Amino acid sequence: MNLPNKTRYVPKLANMHKVCEHNYARLLSLLPDCDTESLEYHFKVNGSLSYQMKIIDSSRYTSTIEMSQRCIDGPDFLKPVVVVRLYHDAQMAEVLTSQHIGALKPSYEYPNNKMYQRNEKEMVNLFLGEWLVFCLKHSDLLQSTSV
């Protein structure tokens, strides 16, 4: 009889740092004024797909950004929303919430009631990286507006 693997997942800190550092650099490329609170950036990829990045908080050492995908047609799961904190002194960007799931833990027991992956936090930060690479490819369509 096979018992489920009960070993706890331990995130590799060096890998997380690398992902967060790359995401920080990508965000700075997209948001040159990331220290200006209440600034929004919008761009359209096509007629039904657009992105919004809003700076919701800014201080000397951190900025908090809400990034969302807007899709006219399609279900809500194709409209991801993440809140990202940029740590300017450490030059890192970390996902705080994803799809309205807040306070992501470094690891989860699996299986769990909410069906989070064992490395959910790492996965949402990797997703942010892929998303930012896509946005950088289309950043020529980026427009900033003040709220």
Notes on the protein architecture:
With 147 residues, the chain is of the alpha+beta class. It has helices at residues 13-30, 120-137, and strands at residues 39-44, 49-58, 62-71, 81-87, 92-98, 143-146. It has a six-stranded antiparallel sheet with strand order 5-4-3-2-1-6. α1 runs parallel beside α2. The longest helix is centred in the first third of the chain and has 18 residues, at 13-30. The mean pLDDT is 84.
Task: Please render the helix and strand layout as text.
Elements: H1 13-30, E1 39-44, E2 49-58, E3 62-71, E4 81-87, E5 92-98, H2 120-137, E6 143-146
Report the sheet-strand fraction: 25-35%
Which ranges are low-confidence, i.e. pLDDT below 50, for 5 or more consecutive residues?
A: none
Helix content: 10-25%
Helical/strand content category: alpha+beta
Annotation, overall tally of beta strands: 6
Question: Can you tell me the overall shape?
Answer: globular
Distance between the termini: 60 Å
Q: What is the topology, as strand order, of the major beta sheet?
A: 5-4-3-2-1-6
How many H/I helical runs? 2
How is the main sheet built?
6 strands, antiparallel
Rg over C-alpha atoms, rounded to the nearest angstrom? 17 Å
Taken in chain order, the helices and strands follow as HEEEEEHE
Mean pLDDT: 84
Throw out a few tags for this protein.
147 residues; 6 strands
Briefly characterize the structure.
The chain has two helices and six strands. It is of the alpha+beta class.
